[in-house]
Amino acid sequence: MADDSVKVEFVEGLSPSERRAVAWITRGDEFNAKTIFENLASNSEGFVRASMDAWIGGAPDIHGRFHGFPGDKTFVDGYVFKYRENRLENRLYGFKMRPGVPDGQFDICVLAVHATKAGKYTPDWVKSVVGRLRDDEAIRRSVVKRVAELYCGKNKRKGRTRK
Amino acid sequence: MNTHWTARSIADYRYSVISSFLMQLEQKMLDEGIQRKDLAKRLNLTQGRVSQILNGKLDNFSVEKIVAYAHGLEMDVAIVGYQNESSDLRGPIHPDIFRICWERLGKPQDFFDLEELDQQHSSETNIADDFYSQSETSAYQVEIALADNVRDFNHKRQAAQTDSASVNLIHSQASIAMAA
Lengths: 163, 180
Hints:
The structure holds two protein chains of two kinds.
Chain A: E1 7-10, E2 20-26, H1 33-38, H2 42-56, E3 66-68, E4 78-85, E5 88-97, E6 107-117, H3 124-135, H4 137-152
Parallel strand pairs in A: 2-6
Antiparallel strand pairs in A: 1-2, 3-4, 4-5, 5-6
Chain B: H1 10-32, H2 36-43, H3 47-54, H4 63-72, H5 87-90, H6 95-104, H7 111-133, H8 139-156, H9 164-179
């Protein structure tokens, strides 16, 4: 069963693609990435959106903007989009998954947590929260369900047709 | 929001275009191990100013500055206009797509280079058509020709506006010959 208390929403206004998408996950006030993003100043919002578009378009990771954590066994599917605001390093953290729909090549980056970063490494609490979400089967099913609704249902998203 | 975020305003579109350009610079800096302080030194700016730009403070980032930053990394700049029917839906194409296509075409420098590419492509198409029309062609020869020609077509067809039908024709002719 999917977790009905969880809301999975695609980030609006990004380039449509049949290969990748970025979504928010919320559960009440528990996860703050979406709210923080929606209240960003225009420069920061544009910065993050441009990064998301690049990721959706298949650009390789640019460490100063967005990247995964392939070398971190505890956070291997973790993903982050970065921006700097008010002299603070801000991060939107989430995880990547391959939902299996609309096909086996589709990747989604599900963002949940905002954090400011002071040190060099990703805070352990972030890894813990994101890791729990990533490993929660009900949440994963919620993501799959949402992707299927958008990419396979009657209101199928019109992405770029793959050749 | 059904349209792309850059369709909201010229300012958003401008931001996206410059931001994507800066991603190109950041990628080059990553590839070549160039630090922000190195770029600042080359541009005779403070590291703080360069960081502000790379972190997205683009309010006063002019075309002159775009050129200066590019030259600071030994890159050139072109402002490319193009027509894309789905622009309102997907926003501007990432500049690296244009760069990679241009490099794959052999970096044509002017319209004469493009003309030569067109002629080269046209003669290759004729050779391939003659070749495949010979009924006694061996499967091995077909395989070599297919690899040579299709590889070149794949590199050139987009910018040279190759008629995709001719590529399909070669595929199908080769398949027929292979089967024979």
